[in-house]
Design goal:
Length: about 290
């Protein structure tokens, strides 16, 4: 089994602001805006988050730079209640280009697990408008997961199920042609080696917790992570991909510290070399 730490949601290039952590600890990963060539009709105002739409939220937090009417690249799509669904809908995630090439080179396949993380910051609501809490830190936080139940090569598949047509990697398939355009579909239930968790194959973490925070407490940059001590790669056959340089890692008394790379989407950890990762994932999901 492999675990993929997958960077998703608003960032400095797409959206330009952090995703929100609400006062009750609820996490909401904001999907990035769709490119100008995207032809799909779904916009931020169409997507439900609890009893609200994302439209109000993105307009407030971006000071109107991202409009509620802006088309949205909803990927990964993990929450059944985000949009009207057909009964046989499954959570899914699309990847393409160099990032998908990296996954293929690492042998990513059925049973492997994406852990999605993004840029988050605390928000508050004042006079019916959302704003970021002053002096609240910028954090990298895990917000969801998807285990691979099936993999679809969109470039070569000639008979895609009709329920997939809403997804950006399908309606934009011409744009992604010849770029290893791929969809990963979740199974109905999550299966870990020698574990029975009674969890769905994909979902989002309902609330922020210290266990989901990657950024080290009081770190000057959200890219400085504090991880379990067993993450330290010295003496292991491999390291978290894109992080093989020894000077990125520092071993502490109880933790390992990592200066994570600022670019890149998919970071792969081979559980054969890090068997402790299975217990770590199980603890996150229970």
């Amino acid at each position: 089994m492999r675990i993929i730490l997958s960077r998703k949601g608003f960032d400095s290039s797409y959206g330009g602001k952090p995703s929100p952590i609400f006062s009750d600890g609820t996490l909401c990963s904001l999907p990035i805006p769709e490119g100008k060539r995207g032809q799909q009709a779904t916009c931020y105002d169409d997507i439900c988050f609890g009893n609200h739409s994302l439209g109000h939220l993105v307009e407030d937090l971006t000071n109107g730079k991202v409009k509620a009417s802006r088309r949205v690249h909803l990927d990964p799509d993990l929450c059944p209640g985000s949009l009207p669904r057909r009964s046989y809908w499954r959570p899914l995630f699309g990847q393409t280009g160099a990032a998908e090439g990296h996954l293929r080179n690492r042998g990513i396949s059925s049973g492997d697990l994406f852990l999605f993380f993004g840029w988050f910051r605390e928000v508050e609501q004042v006079n019916n408008r959302y704003r970021y809490v002053k002096a609240a830190p910028d954090l990298h936080v895990l917000f969801g997961w998807l285990q691979i139940g099936a993999r679809i090569d969109v470039e070569t598949e000639t008979d895609l199920p009709d329920w997939l047509t809403y997804h950006p990697h399908v309606y934009n398939r011409d744009r992604y042609s010849q770029h290893a355009n791929t969809l990963y579909l979740a199974p109905s239930t999550l299966k870990l080696p020698s574990r029975s968790l009674n969890q769905p194959g994909a979902g989002t973490f309902p609330q922020f917790s210290a266990a989901l925070q990657l950024t080290a407490p009081a770190a000057a940059s959200r890219s400085l992570w504090e991880l379990p001590r067993w993450f330290y790669p010295a003496g292991r056959p491999s390291a978290l991909s894109y992080h093989t340089k020894p000077n990125r890692w520092q071993l502490g008394n109880r933790s390992t510290y990592l200066r994570s790379v600022c670019q890149g989407q998919e970071f792969v950890l081979d559980c054969q070399h890090y068997p402790e990762a299975i217990n770590w994932v199980a603890a996150l999901l229970t």
